[in-house]
Structures are given as C-alpha cells and as structure tokens.
Specification:
It comes from Streptomyces akebiae. By secondary structure, the protein is α+β, with helices and mostly antiparallel strands. Helices cover 29% and strands 20% of the residues. The protein is built from 13 helices and 12 strands. The longest helix is centred in the C-terminal third of the chain and has 18 residues, at 306-323.
C-alpha cells in the first residue's frame, strides 16, 4: 500500500482546509480502503470526516427528504420517514452489499464509489479510468456485465450503486460544501458519463465535500419501488435494475419517475418511458409499450447483448409491480 498521512477532522472547516490541500475524504472506507489495498488508488493524504455532524435524516419544509452524507446505508434504509415517503430508496439500500457493509458504508460514500469493472481493478489491464490514455480492455475483452447506455470509445464500465438509481429516478439534488461555499447539483448532473475523460466521474470541485442528498417533495399518493436482477440473490451487483415512482390520481398516471441501473455508465434516467406513461391509465399493455423505450440508444457489446431485452423486461415488471393493472 502506498504511504499516506491520516487526519481526523474535528469540524467542517478543518476538513475543507485538508481537502483543499489535496486530502481525500473518508468515512466508512468500504470502497476506498479496498482500492488502496489493490493499489488502484494511492492517495497521499486521508481526511477522516466520520465525526462531522452530517448524520441526520430530516423532512424539508415542502415535504421532501434530506439524507445527511454520513448517514449509513443501514440507518437510511431503516428510517421511518425514508420507508414511508420513498420506499424505493429503502428497497435499493436493502438490496445493496451485505448487512455488515451497510452498517459501515455511508450515503455520501455510496454515490462516490467507483466502478466494479474487473479491468479497472486489475492494475495490469488497460483502463482509461485508472490510467487515462491507456485504452479500455473491456471493449474487446469479457464485457458481459458492462454498460449498454452512456458508453464511449474510452469506457464502458457501469456505475455500481443501487441507491443512486433511486436518487436519479426521484430527481434528487446533491448538496455540497467547499472552499467557495455551498452549492447544489442535480443528481443526474453529478455523476458524469465517461465521454473522452472517464477518469472524471463526479462534478466535484477541488476540496468539495458532500453534505447530503435532498429528495424533492413529490405529489401524493406516490407509490415507488426498486427491482434488482442479478446472477445470485445476495451480495451481487445488478445486471439490470429499475427504480419506479408513480403518482396516480383519478385513474390516470399524473407523474412518473423511472431510472435504471446495471446497464449505464451512470444511473440512467428514462424520460421517454416517463413521457409514454403520463396521462395514461395503468394497464398491462401500457407497461409493455413503455418498457420497449427503456433501451433507446443502447449500444450492446459482444457479450452483453442480452441486456437489451433484460432491461425491457425489468422495467415492464417493475412498472407492473408499482402501478398494478386493471
């Protein structure tokens, strides 16, 4: 492991000062420490922010929800307001990792986690995320688990987070604090598609710290849920997944929020699916027709062509689960 210095920040100012000097923030450490052991990451300085007051879940004035960056996955999943207002978030968290990891990992760290692409984690393989300009071994290698949406000639790795898919569907906002003060970034702009710079994965400025994720108030009643399709039923990343939230009033869908995971280089919002649903009455035919649009723009690789149909089936099934039929 590369030598590094370690500082535990006693307050936000100390953390920001250390971050501005190039320190890497760490709390649960469930991703970064692994990458350091594997010599994929080798930061010179770690800044422990686990003692900062960013560990609360609160309801906003308008009826949305703010989840502090240091709330653990387990705490967020079990929180009464999260389960009541946005069950899709609880379900996504409960289908993530193992119970032990959920007790350690934080919400901020979860959305900052890096890809599980085997080529990224193999320091002998070409990977533009790890070593810009070296190439992407997955393009011609074994790419069964890789992305079919949002890819580029530089990178086809998927984003691994489940709860990030729920945040993307709900159009959440990431709250940030940095040397220049506070700012907010829409969740769907926070995680960056690879393009020609896959090593830049988030819209963070130097020294910025995630303070929380805020979910906006949505019309009620709101039904939501998360479906994860994987090779095995525990401790496995998604081949496909779908986060769905529907507001149905007077027999018609008034608002639809849909995003998918396991298939995109970032959690992938599906506006075409949403637009097809709004104003329509729930039915088996509607779910099937809307789900066909889930794979619009897909660019499958040699070994993951099956994901196109699997994605459509996953979205259709979750629409049926959340929206029901008549």
């Amino acid at each position: 492991m590369h030598p590094f210095t370690y500082t535990k920040a006693s307050d936000t100012r100390e953390a920001l000062n250390a971050g501005r000097r190039g320190g890497r923030y760490i709390a649960g450490g469930t991703t970064l420490v692994d990458l350091m052991r594997e010599t994929v990451e080798h930061p010179d300085a770690l800044v422990d922010i686990s003692g900062l007051p960013l560990d609360e879940v609160t309801v906003t004035e308008r009826g949305g929800l703010r989840i502090g960056a240091l709330v653990t996955m387990a705490e967020a999943a079990a929180h009464r307001k999260v389960r009541t207002l946005f069950p899709v978030v609880s379900e996504a968290l409960e289908l993530s990792a193992s119970a032990q990891l959920r007790n350690m990992a934080t919400i901020g760290g979860n959305i900052m986690q890096r890809t599980r692409c085997t080529y990224f984690r193999d320091v002998t393989a070409d990977c533009n995320r790890r070593d810009p300009g070296s190439g992407c071994a997955a393009l011609e290698g074994v790419n069964r688990t890789h992305a079919i949406l949002g890819t580029s000639d530089s990178c086809v790795a998927t984003h691994p987070s489940d709860v990030a898919v729920a945040f993307a569907a709900l159009e959440a906002t990431v709250r940030l604090l940095g040397p220049d003060g506070e700012r907010s970034v829409p969740f769907n702009d926070f995680l960056l598609k690879p393009g020609s710079t896959p090593q830049r994965e988030q819209a963070l400025r130097r020294g910025e710290l995630i303070t929380g994720v805020e979910i906006p108030a949505l019309p009620r009643p709101l039904k939501s849920g998360y479906l994860k399709v994987r090779d095995r039923q525990s401790y496995e990343f998604a081949l496909t997944s779908a986060a769905v939230a529907l507001h149905v009033r007077g027999g018609a869908i008034r608002e639809a929020k849909v995003a998918v995971g396991g298939v995109g280089t970032v959690p992938w919002k599906l506006p075409a699916v949403e637009e097809h649903l709004v104003g329509e009455r729930p039915s088996e035919a509607l779910w099937a027709a809307a789900a066909q649009k889930a794979s619009d723009g897909a660019r499958p690789l040699t070994h993951n062509r099956f994901k196109v149909e699997l994605l459509q089936r996953t979205v259709e099934r979750q629409l049926r689960i959340v929206g029901g039929t008549k």
